[in-house]
């Protein structure tokens, strides 16, 4: 079974305050061209379900087109941390991360998908080292960011990069239970980009 864990992109999709909202419109209609509809869309790279490239927060970091694609396809463990306001290694110490390369944290904190959240759980930067020591290379969240919304230092982003852990944000996990799945969440091949929307799915094993 395939579970779509992407958020819908439309004119009502919430985005970071002040960032470029998503829009789609027809440039030419079939009536005008006589053969096809041709549309265009405009959006921030960090709207809805997306990956962060390290270049997003590090001028010397990898851009989207430089990322290893195998990170975004493969087995993943979904961990339910929906009762936690702060997520640290202590909350995950009982989770078996043996042979786990990808982890998705289900926080259930983004209650209304039509509005940008005003508060989200805190992911402690110490998770970076913890995940690296356990062999994790990709962290996904059902939040717009792995850092507090008001953060300018982006400590968790930098801690994950320092430990070679890549970031997938804005997942929709409402219909997903904790457990093992196969993830596909490929970014667009946009040269020089700091992030990219993805169509993220989970397949039951």
From TrEMBL:
InterPro entries from the UniProt entry: KFase/CYL, KFase_sf, Kynurenine_formamidase_bac
UniProt keyword annotation of Transport present: no
Cofactor list: Zn(2+)
Binding site for substrate: 16
Reaction catalysis annotation: N-formyl-L-kynurenine + H2O = L-kynurenine + formate + H(+)
EC number: 3.5.1.9
Sites where the protein binds Zn(2+) 2: 52, 157, 169
Cofactor note: Binds 2 zinc ions per subunit.
Family annotation (NCBIfam families): trp_arylform
Biological role: Catalyzes the hydrolysis of N-formyl-L-kynurenine to L-kynurenine, the second step in the kynurenine pathway of tryptophan degradation.
Protein name: Kynurenine formamidase
Organism encoding this protein: Alkalibacillus filiformis
């Amino acid at each position: 079974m395939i579970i779509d864990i992407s958020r819908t992109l439309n004119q009502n999709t919430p985005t970071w305050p002040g960032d470029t909202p998503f829009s789609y419109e027809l440039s030419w209609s079939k009536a005008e061209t006589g053969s096809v509809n041709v549309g265009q869309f405009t959006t921030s790279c960090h709207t809805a379900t997306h990956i962060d490239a390290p270049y997003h927060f590090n001028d010397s970091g990898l851009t989207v087109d430089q990322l290893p694609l195998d990170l975004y396809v493969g087995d993943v463990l979904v961990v339910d941390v929906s009762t936690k306001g702060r997520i640290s290694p202590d909350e995950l110490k009982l989770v078996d991360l043996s042979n786990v390369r990808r982890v998705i944290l289900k926080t259930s904190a983004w209650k209304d998908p039509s509005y940008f959240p005003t508060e989200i759980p805190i992911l402690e930067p110490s998770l970076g080292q913890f995940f690296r020591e356990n062999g994790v290379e990709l962290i996904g969240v059902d939040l717009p960011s792995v850092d507090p919304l008001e953060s300018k230092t982006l400590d968790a982003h930098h801690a994950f990069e320092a430990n070679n852990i890549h970031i997938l944000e804005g997942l929709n996990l409402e219909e997903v239970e904790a457990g093992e799945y196969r993830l596909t969440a490929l970014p667009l091949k946009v040269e020089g980009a700091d992030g990219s929307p993805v169509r993220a799915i989970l397949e039951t094993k």
